[in-house]
Amino acid sequence: MKNFALIGAAGYIAPRHMQAIKATGNDLVAALDMNDSVGIIDSHFPDAEFFTEFERFDRHIDKLRRTKSNQKVDFVSICSPNYLHDSHMRFALRSEADAICEKPLVLNPWNIDGLLDIEKDTGRKVNTILQLRVHPAIMALREKVQNESKDTKHEVDLTYITSRGHWYLQSWKGDEKKSGGIATNIGVHFFDMLHFIFGKLQANIVHHSSDTKAAGYLEYEHARVRWFLSINIEDVPAAQRDKGQRTFRSITVDGEEIEFSGGFTDLHTRSYEEILAGRGYGLEDNRTAIETVASIRHAAIAPLSGDFHPFLK
Ligand code: NAD
Ligand code: HP7
Predict the structure, then answer these.
(1) Would you say the ipTM is above 0.90?
(2) What is d(CA 132, CA 144) in angstroms, rounded to the nearest whole number?
(3) Which of 206, 223, 232, 269 could bridge to 154 as Cys pair (CB 3.0-4.6 Å)?
(4) Using 50, 70 and 90 to split pLDDT, how confident is the model at 62?
(5) Is the CB of 80 inside a 6 Å radius of any atom of ligand 1?
(6) What was the pLDDT predicted at 69?
(7) CA atoms within a 13 Å half-sphere pointing along the CA-CB vector of 260
(8) H helices then E strands: how many in the chain?
(9) Ligand 1 neighbour 103 (Cβ under 6 A)
(10) Facing residues of 227 across strands?
(11) Is residue 18 over pLDDT 90?
């Protein structure tokens, strides 16, 4: 049984990590969040220590390490806002633990280089949550593409609309310096997935970028992709919106829909199973997606000509 600590325990995604720690037969020994709305811990680990100050949390983790306690932390799970991830990963590794960090791993590619140095210095590992890589439909599509001839190029349309209320832009998620903006905070999932399925990134053009919407064109070794991402309910197609649907996720490959909207719920547990079996995705696995989102953030907006997503019309 491995011991876990969790940073960002009061947030939206933390319970999925608590479930994953529990479902894989491990223990949460300590948690940190400056927000103390963390009663959810009792549903999973009623004996876990909880801290609202980093310094006290650090002292506790360090004591467990120095005293070789049977609660010495093996993994630190990181569910804090995106711009804090690199600092929290450094804390994990320096505490002689491995890290399991939420996406996006970091906001800029050069942060990965700094973390590689700390991995080397400490001999510990950074693992990341790239949960679409363990989605059965995505794994099957990747396998199919890998078995095709090397010069195959697919035509892909990716439409990813996941509505958010007004709170989103008022929170750290709406602050580009903290979240990277929506193409980084939400888009990173599918940019990583596209690279995972279709290989090396060859072109990256941005057609639209605002606080609530982004769109562009990406070319990979094996695909030409028109993409559209929005958190605005108005972008959910009317037929689905009329049925009360607030999310619309679609990938078509050569006009054929890949069914991947279902099966999103236990992907954190699947990711933990892989990490615990020593098959976690590490720093270098994240580089292409982090480079992609960093370029999108700094790109000049291209005119609407050529391969732009049809939802932009
Ligand atoms: P959230 O705002 O709901 O939660 C973040 C928590 O971190 C808050 O409770 C906040 O108080 C706490 N926090 C802030 N600064 C901290 C600090 N210095 N030390 C400790 N805790 C601190 O956000 P969320 O939606 O839970 O997102 C958390 C992370 O998970 C982000 O990196 C986000 O991108 C990622 N996420 C991933 C998925 C996914 O599908 N894999 C889904 C949602 C969020
Ligand atoms: N929701 C909340 O109540 N609070 C939140 O903070 C977020 C959502 P989905 P996930 O918005 O930051 C996606 O779209 O898949 C509500 C991204 N992940 O299924 O869990 C929401 O209003 C993730 O990387 O959300 O998370 C819905 O009612 C990104 O950080 C419901 O939860 C996160 O949005 C479910 O919403 C975000 C993927 O797209 C895989």
Answers:
(1) yes
(2) 16
(3) 223
(4) very high
(5) yes
(6) 94
(7) 25
(8) 13, 12
(9) yes
(10) 158, 216
(11) yes
Distance (angstroms) between ligand 1 centre and the Cα of 82 equals 7
Cα separation, 120 vs 250, whole angstroms? 40
Ligand 2 centroid to Cα of residue 23, in Å, is: 21
What's the pLDDT tens digit per position in 93-150? 999 999 999 999 999 999 999 999 999 999 999 999 999 999 999 999 999 999 999 9
pLDDT band at 290 (very low <50, low <70, confident <90, very high): very high
Q: How far, in Å, is the centroid of ligand 2 from the Cα of 22?
A: 22
Amino acid letter for position 138: I
- How far CA 192 is from CA of 49, 52, 132, 312, in Å, comes to 35, 33, 8, 23
| Best mutation site among 37, 186, 229 for ligand 2 pocket (most ligand atoms within 8 Å of CB) | 186
Ligand nearest to the CA of 35: 1
CA–CA distance, 286 with 277 (Å, rounded to integer): 19
Distance CA 132, CA 194 (A): 10
